[in-house]
Amino acid sequence: MLFVSDLDRTLIYSRRAFWLGPGMDPPPHSLVEVHNGEEISYIADEALEKLRQMAEKMAFAPVTTRTVEQYRRISLFQKVVIPQFAIVSNGGNILIDGRPDEGWAAQIRKKKERHCLCDEALLAEFAKIRHSSWLLSERQADELFYYFIVDRACLPYADLAEFRTWAAAGNWTVSLQGRKLYLVPSVVNKADAVQHIKERLQASFLAAAGDSLLDLCVLDRADYAIAPCHGEIWDRRSELQPGALKFTRKPGIFAAGEILDRVNEIYKSR
Predict the structure, then answer these.
(1) Exposed site from 74, 98, 153, 254, fewest CB < 10 Å?
(2) Residue 170 contacts by C-beta under 8 Å, 6 or more apart in sequence?
(3) Whole-angstrom Cα distance, residue 228 to residue 254?
(4) Rounded to whole angstroms, how far apart are CA atoms 168 and 230?
(5) 183 pairs with which residues across the strands?
(6) Is the four-CA dihedral 53, 54, 57, 62 of positive or negative sign?
(7) pTM beyond 0.90, yes or no
(8) What is the 3-state secondary structure (H, E, C) of 15-59?
(9) 206, 220 contact by CB (below 8 A)
(10) Helix or strand or coil: residue 185?
(11) What is the pLDDT of residues 109-166, one digit of tens each?
């Protein structure tokens, strides 16, 4: 059995993503990421112990849009739970024992050149709607895709919807996750990378967890799929096939432990 999971807002959380109800205290939790002296991400202690135990008895691979550099900042996966495989850059890179799989990276870049609209044309069209009133910063991630920090209150949603449709015709995906707006080539996706690892491990069963639309391609292919009751997928749950995807009962940092409990139940029942 292979279990793959998104990281941010699925297993690990920033403080503003704890999503605690009125009067609720956070569970005991551990700091797992520091950047430039700033505390970034945490995991509930109970979830941490469950993940550690699970990784000892089944194959586990983190799956994230984070760049290689950003993933390596997470001490949890460098010191406590050290997976053989990690999917980063939204599937554009695979790490094997911490080192990039150069063959996979070359394959992805070749597919991008062959099947997707060039970056210059995409950004030229995006320039028609971007504005400093809502776009706060931008970055190219591992020379594969782009993401922008945005002010959601000022976003031109109608223009963005039109741009999303236009970009899709050129095989690019536009996804809004929290304060991040992603522009990602369709060939750079988590599902293909997960399938590659599944075949390498000869795993017969795939369990998957994630909260964003960029995770949906993996969840759709999984034998068991679960998402937190927060995030992009939860917000658009009415558009999904009933029963195809399970949701946690609790949002935020409490969801991680619940996800791991459910996956562990599936493992024990097989």
Answers:
(1) 153
(2) 116, 117, 121, 122
(3) 9
(4) 25
(5) 146, 174
(6) negative
(7) yes
(8) HHHCCCCCCCCCCCEEEEEEECCEEEEEEEHHHHHHHHHHHHHCE
(9) no
(10) strand
(11) 999 999 999 999 999 999 999 999 999 999 999 999 999 999 999 999 999 999 999 9
pLDDT tens-digit profile of 26-67? 999 999 999 999 999 999 999 999 999 999 999 999 999 999
68 DSSP 8-state letter: H
Within 10 angstroms of residue 98's Cβ, the number of other Cβ atoms is 14
The label of the residue with tokens 């695979």 reads 94
Contact (Cβ atoms closer than 8 angstroms) between residue 54 and residue 30:
no
**What is the DSSP pairing of strand 180-185 with strand 206-209?**
unpaired
Nearest to 151 by CA among 135, 129, 164: 135
* Complete domains list, the chain, with CATH: 2-108+188-269 (3.40.50.1000), 117-185 (3.30.1360)
Strands (E), the chain: 2-5, 29-35, 38-44, 59-62, 85-88, 93-96, 99-100, 135-141, 145-150, 172-177, 180-185, 206-209, 224-227, 246-247
